Amino acid sequence: xxxxxINGIVLxxxxxxxxxxxxxxxxxxxxxxxxxxxxxxxxxxxxxxLYGQFQLPFWLAxxxxxxxxxxxGVLFNRLFFQPVLASAKREENSMLMAVGTALLLENLALTLxxxxxxxxxPVVDGSFIFGDISExxxxxxxxxxxxxxxxxxxxxxxxxxxxxxxxxxxxxxVAQDKEAARLQGVxxxxxxxxxxxxxxxxxxxxxxxxxxxxGVNSGIGSNISTKAFIMxxxxxxxxxxxxxxxxxLLGFAEAIGYDLLPGSLTYLLIFVAMIxxxxxxxxxxxxxxWG
Amino acid sequence: xxxxxxxELCAVSLCYDEVRALQNVNIKVPTGDIVALIGANxxxxxxxxxxxxxxxxxxxxxxxxxxxxxxxxxxxxxxxALVRQGVVMVPEGRHVFPHMSIKDNLLMGAYTRxxxxxxxxxxxxxxxxxxxxxxxxxxHGSSLSGGEQQxxxxxxxxxxxxxxxxxxxPSLGIAPQVVRQIAQSLVEINRKxxxxxxxxxxxxxxxxxxxxxxxVLETGNVALEGPSxxxxxxxxxxxxxxxx
Lengths: 291, 244
Hints:
The complex is a heterodimer.
Chain A: H1 2-29, H2 36-53, H3 58-87, H4 91-113, E1 127-130, E2 138-141, H5 142-164, H6 166-176, H7 178-183, H8 188-214, H9 221-235, H10 240-260, H11 265-280
Antiparallel strand pairs in A: 1-2
Helix pairs in contact in A: 1-5, 1-8, 1-9, 1-10, 2-3, 2-4, 2-8, 2-9, 3-4, 3-8, 5-6, 5-8, 6-8, 9-10, 10-11
Chain B: E1 7-16, E2 19-29, E3 34-39, H1 45-53, E4 60-65, E5 68-71, H2 79-84, E6 87-90, H3 102-109, H4 116-129, H5 131-135, H6 146-158, E7 164-168, H7 176-193, E8 196-201, H8 204-210, E9 213-218, E10 221-227, H9 228-231, H10 235-241
């Protein structure tokens, strides 16, 4: 039981980080970034190469993964999303384009990195042991603890940034009322780009963190995106607290499922539960815009 | 008063798709005045404000601020850049940020400024002007009444330290005693702070009693203009806009 709790906390904290990135982009642009999982995958590859192959310190490789993805985010926004959103009269256009960017990244990754599963040497070694494992005790490995701690740190930093800084306020303003934001002197285009960059960077950070536990391959993107969609649908798309709650809930559902059920049954049940949930709560738990 | 009007619309036309919302409109706003734009729904009042703030590019003519063109068919200042030049609008329906505290709403008004000490003192003076806001400083915008939201919207605009304040229907949907309070504060803002005001209103009586000059818009044209005091005694105005 304690083990399930620990696994849930570890998974939930990274998932919340993933969901926050997706919800950030959604709240500001009203676009679902289908490439979020692929951005996660790229972040994982950045850490794989910098830390795993070129042996840079992990503490340097991880921020660089975030930074690299922020750059990808800026380019994607300026080259693909903003032009299409500016000219599109229907939502389908931007949605199809978003799906296209996901395919683009995935195929680029397949071409550049191949399809092999890759891992990195552990950053930290060892584990905390709680009680006697054969009698209901639990184990928390240092890598898992590190991933959870860094995820929580990143989430806290993001929340403080959004809540208490001038650009953070502008992000919230743009998410809540674009025209009113413009009338306060906000350059909506730049702030939108900033939001997209942050969203992409969060995906990159999450990928760079989880590669230390699960490794990476070019195809994991859509799997991560699907999980991210589930999380923001549970919480309510575009809501900070919703993304966090959605991430933690999915993390725990997964931890409990893997403990009690055989293999693939867990996600089958999660999807069924999701459908039932959406019938009763189509806007998620907190159905209001980003705030 | 300088020879060049603070704000000038010269032969401005403005369209939404095929619909012409303004046609050859000329408006002059002298520095330090309150000028009213009145008229029925769809007469083009809000469109005039959108032309001034650059929210919509004009189809013909030009808008000048202190003699410089800020909106013409070939060149248009961005709305956010105009805020830096002191052109600030309180939009119709107030558009308070719903999921932000009053404090953050007001701070958003000071977004273009980089002088934290004076921002803090301006925050204080907005709260002195509208004491209701201090009581609700940490509540979200969506939890306020219409009148309180209007105070936030005006306070937020003042936080930008405007030279030209544009108000779109500040009395709409607000209790009469609050309307009086807001009208009073507009006079103060104009007299004490020396801010030029363009007031768009369906509440013609209030608009004309506050302003020195009034433009009456009808179907996208200036149908009538003159000193507000004179227009208030005009039979046409009395019949159509002042209810008898």
